[in-house]
Design a protein that fits this description.
Blueprint: E1 5-10, E2 18-27, E3 30-35, E4 43-48, E5 58-63, H1 65-73, E6 86-88, E7 91-94, E8 97-106, H2 115-118, E9 131-136, E10 144-154, H3 162-168, E11 171-176, E12 181-191, E13 212-220, E14 229-237, H4 238-247
Parallel strand pairs: 1-9, 8-14
Antiparallel strand pairs: 1-2, 2-3, 3-4, 4-5, 5-6, 7-8, 8-10, 10-12, 11-12, 13-14
Amino acid sequence: MTKREIFVVLSADDNHARGNIWKITAKKTDFYLDFEGTHNGGFHLSIHGPNEKFSGHRFHVKADRQAVKSARMGGSFLEHGLGKGLEFDGTKLADHAYLVARLRWTWDLQRPRFKHAALSRVAVPELSAGRSGKMLDTPLDPNSAWDIDVVVSYGEPFWPHAERSARDDSRLGPLENDAGMWLTATSYHRSQMLHPSPEHLRLPVPRPGETPQSVLGAGPGSAGQQGMYWFVEGITSQEVLSATAASRGRDFDGLPG
């Protein structure tokens, strides 16, 4: 059976998830990237393939308005500028392949001092036929990150750095949809000094006396760039989020632990 769903989880030495649990799904002529659980405000990235109404492909990020409203009413700090959604082009790797998204977890999520803030409120899902997954519990080096690079291709799976990923067993998938498209995901450990997150997605870690808070930032690589889409999971402080909310005329009461 072709696997139809992939789960990706960052953990530590206790097998509990840190940050969000990501889910990658193949459904009809599409692929979807979203979260396990209902606390995320309805954000998802969709990869639409050719169908009876549309001859090409489309990469699209959007948020459910009602889910955003519910998250805010629950005390979450949740802001976006997506409007009805954002289309982007991806980064072309070959004539038939595109780097669509990078999921990044920073090393701060594994640090003992931030454990309470980093722990997910969602249970790690069980795997079964059609559901595969990867949990990283290896300690990340200081100032490093765990990346999952998501690629879609036509006709056959495309693996960046194919020899290395096969040797290192760092591949997830592939998934195939009904439009003849393939999705592959490749795991990397990268230095944030050599491969920094986009500047607008980097928030300061808590200073002494501040309250740690997990955070997800998402956006294109840089202002005006319509390449791959970034999702960066990390740790900041409730004070930083409160100041940001105040500057936008909103209240922030913190997220439930």
